[in-house]
Amino acid sequence: MLNDIPGVQCAMPKGAFYVFPNVEGACRALGILDAYAAMPMPARTRTSPSGLLQRFLLERYGVATMDRNSFGRIGADGEHYLRLSIASAMERLEEGVRRIGKACADKDGCADFLNEMHAEASLAGRS
């Protein structure tokens, strides 16, 4: 199901309870790569494109994932992966993937989310 989402590529796991989809295409389509590149350097050191997608998925679509940097920073530069646990009931996994698919198609919602994050960061920088 993950491979049916435009911009997401995922290898079939071999006995693992995690999958690691490459979400670079989704980050590109949603404008996350451009938004990340436009962030000031201090803000970029605290997140990544996959980290921004992770927050969007959690805060707007209720899907918990881990971004690439959360499971090891060594060799993570320029890589846009998420980690998803598949240790759950099939119905829950299917619902989560459906939500990921909706999120990856929600360019306007992601733009709003990124703008809100930018506004919050600007306010935090003033205090």
Summarize the structure.
By secondary structure, the protein is mostly helical. Helix content is 51%, strand content 6%.
Sheet with most strands: 3 strands, antiparallel
- What is the arithmetic mean of pLDDT? 89
CATH domain fold name: Aspartate Aminotransferase, domain 1
Distance between the termini: 44 Å
Beta-strand content: 5-15%
What descriptors fit this protein?
51% helix; Aspartate Aminotransferase, domain 1; mainly alpha; single chain; 3 strands
Characterization of this structure:
There is one protein chain. By secondary structure, the protein is mainly α. It has a single domain (2-126), classed as Aspartate Aminotransferase, domain 1 (Alpha-Beta Complex). Helix content is 51%, strand content 6%. The chain contains six helices and three strands. The protein has helices spanning 24-29, 32-38, 41-44, 49-61, 90-104, 107-126, and strands at residues 18-19, 66-67, 82-85. Strands 1-3-2 form a three-stranded antiparallel β-sheet, with helices on one face. Helix 2 (32-38) crosses helix 4 and helix 4 (49-61) packs across helix 5. The relative contact order is 0.19.
Secondary structure blueprint with pairings:
Layout: E1 18-19, H1 24-29, H2 32-38, H3 41-44, H4 49-61, E2 66-67, E3 82-85, H5 90-104, H6 107-126
Helix pairs in contact: 2-4, 4-5
